[in-house]
Design goal:
200 residues; alpha+beta; Biosynthetic Threonine Deaminase, domain 3; Alpha-Beta Plaits; 2 domains; eight-stranded antiparallel beta sheet
Amino acid sequence: NMNFDRLRFVAERAEVGEQREALFAVTIPEERGSFKRFCALVSPPGSTRQVTEFNYRISDSSSAQIFVGLTTAQGGESKKIAAQFKRQGFAALDLTGDELAKTHIRHMVGGRSELARDERLFRFTFPERPGALMTFLDSMHADWNISLFHYRNQGADYGRILVGLQVPKKDSGALRSFLDGLGYPYTDETSNPVYRLFLR
């Protein structure tokens, strides 16, 4: 017999093994707006490409490292995607054939960060449809910053997202209005002891 965890593992390995998923390490400037610009590049309007994984944790004041997975239609497509990232000014390393990345690193992106000041942590349930992430980013206040982002496509009708937001205390009311106005179910995990132990 095979349980659901084992099925998920087999499915993930099959996607990469059959080259239906490409994995990348991408470097973007650690500045407001660059995350949104990269997201728009990854899955532009009208594209059939889907994000399968997205992991990021603020760790450097000048650049950010993002671990991202994308669906592919055919073998060898990952090299073309990496070249596209580079043409847009984002340094990219193709990890599709990297066993360390596939087996371990994809699960280890994150950790504590001294740069994550005024951080609030939220779990969201996003609808698995094009534009859901961009709706979130477009609705955010321009002065707020995403300091943590974790998403893995589980093949469901919804996506479970973990997001760290750097929001000044004076903006607490605006943050509440933003969260309630999105229409996405969410849970504030800022006081969760697991967050305090491993991420804060």
